[in-house]
Structures are given as C-alpha cells and as structure tokens.
Model the fold of this input.
Amino acid sequence: MSTEYTEELIEKIKKEGIKMKPKFRFVLKMLLMVLGILITILFAVYLVSLISFISKGSGLGLLPPFGLRGFGLILIGLPWLLIGLSGASILILQILVKKFSFSYREPVLYSLIGIIIFVLFGGMAFGKVGLHERLLDRVEREEIPILREVYRSYGPPIGAGFNAGTLLEIGEKDLLVETINGDEIRVQITDDTHLPFGGDFEVGQEIVVVGKAENGLIKAFGIRGVSEAERPFGPKRRFR
Amino acid sequence: MKTDEEIILLVKTGDLEAFSILVERYRERIIRYAKKFLIGYDDAEDLVQEVFIKAYINIKGFDDSRKFSSWLYRIAHNEFINAIKKRKNEPVPFFDPDSIFPHPIAKERADAEIVRKETKKIIEKTLDKLKPKYREPLILYYFEDMTYKQIADVMRIPISTVGIRIKRAKEKAKLEFEKLNK
Done:
C-alpha cells in the first residue's frame, strides 16, 4: 500500500515527465573512464621511459662516482619538465582509479604506491623495446619535426660543469680533450682532482671531466673514462 | 516478497508501480538518515524526494551485482553533502588526510548490545555538535546498521578511515556529552 509521500513522488515523476537515462549513457561513461585510464597509463609509461632515456643519453649515469658534486650535476641535468608531467599523470591516474571500489576502499597511499610501481616497471619495460632510439633516429633525419623539441631539447649539463669528449693528448699535469661540441680544451689535473677509477687514460679514449671551463681551460674536479658499454645512447652513439 | 534487485529489473522496463515499492521500502530509512545528518534543515524531506528522483533517473546505471541499498545511500550522501556545501554553515573538506595512510588500530568490532544502546544515546544527544565528516559515519554505523565496508562504499573513503572517524567521533561525542551534563 503506497503512502501519500510515495504517491506524491510518483505523481511528480509522471507530471514532470521525468525519464530514466538510457543504459548506453552509463556504458559510454564507463568506456570513456577506462579509455582515459589507459591513455593516462600509456602517457605516464612513455614519459618515465623517456626520462630514463634522456638521463642516460645526457650521461647523468656517469656522475655518481663524483659524489655530492656529481649528484648536484644530476639534479641540474634531469629533465624536470618531463618529471613534473609524469608526476601530474600519476596524480590524474590516482583520481581516476579512485572511482573504483578496489581503490577507494584502501588508503590513498596504497593505490599511489601501486600506480608508481606499475608506471616505473612499465616505463622500464617500454624502454627495452627501443622505441626512443628509433624515434631519435627519425628525428635526426628530420622525419618527425613535432618530436624534435622532445628529443633534442635535453642534453648534458655542460654549462654547470659537465664536460665530455675524446682524449687527444696526455701531458704530465694536463690533458687535451676534443669536446662533444668539437672544441679543444685543456684539462688541468691537480692533487685534489678526483679520479674514481684511476688515472690511466689512453689517447683516443672518451672521458668525462667535471669542472667549469674558463678560457679553454678546466681545473678538473674529477675525471673518469667512459667504456663502450657506458656510452650514452648505446655503443654507436656519442654524447649529444 | 520480491527482492530489491528483482524489483529494479521491473523498474528498468518503465514500471513506476515497481519503483513505488522501492520508495516505500527505503523512504523511512533515508528520511531518518537525512534528519540526523542535516540537522536544522527544513527541506530535508524535499532533499529525500530529490534522492529518489535521482535514483529513478539513474537506475539503468545501477549494477545488478551490487546492493541497491548502498547505491541509494550513495546518492543520498551526494545530495546531502551538496546541500551542506551550498549552505556553507559547516566545513566539508575537499580532501581528508585521514584517507592517505592506513589506520591499523581502527578495526571494526561488535559492541555488546547494552554498550551500543548507551553509545547511541550519547550520539543522539551530541550529533549537532559534531562536524559532518564525523557525524555521517556515526549515523550510518549506529542508526542505519551498516558495516564499515558499506559505509566506505557510501562515502567512498577507505575502510580504515571509516574506523578511525567512528573512533574519533565517539570520543568527541563523549566529551560533548560530559559538557552537557556538567
């Protein structure tokens, strides 16, 4: 038996012609949500693998043996815009998955950690595919101008004290190096110069020198050699 | 007697009579929830009517594998929270830090009947002194007999956050009750 309240409500629905929303709208909304999540995951994974590719390509991975000064250069050289974008996409993912019970029933920290781990591992796996190397090749052949800025805007933090090049001459207390820009520069070795892997260098060897260049001379804070396997962008490439 | 889910199948075909059965079933519960949560609101019953209308409009989006009551309470929660936000009399934070970290101490446990009755009495007298974020889980737990998981589904917050809010809300209610009796 309906009460007056219920009758009034049903009457209102009839009188105002209130209609149920069709099922396809809910299905479409869910599809868009899932699509949004997938696109954001792909974007975040791509960004993480790109950050890793650019960092490696900039030679930042060669700097930790130089201690605090090396880490300082890493901080300067990291692609912060890309890191910010990947952080933003992780936050968007967090907001999107919060609509699902498996996520909102648990503390935010859990889903956030889950997303970060997923994106990091996804980014590492994505990096193994070799897509960035192929894209970089095509960018260098001017085939994809739209990606030029993405792949060519980043490089080693040269102005901040990162120098790399090929050893031309070995003197008693100095080295002559042809830098990656094609300039010749003299590197002064002092008693304070850090040589984390020793001082046995050979002419023709690629080296990294930490220290600011002034008037064609670097008073070296640290010097290390670069092996074939450590060379940024793989054995066939040089620093850029 | 037909289950809610069987009735919903009929409502989805356009059967308004079937919808009136659902309204009858849940009318008193939702009104009770509204009156306890929206203290001092003259239009609480109008808001409840709005809840049922929204349920009717969106019923084809109801997932048959879930409980209708949780779905309906979720609609009511949204409607009531929006009403509180519009009035701007009480704070409704956009984000609660309690939902970030787990709270292992906040486990659900069944109180003895006598303790539960006593707690309900205290809560009833102090509800108007509590913030919405504390008032709501207390109402759903003590007056609507929901589990922490059901409350989490209604409020879309972590289960452990439900636990910690109920715990804090009870402590606050007890303090307010002691103040009242001084």
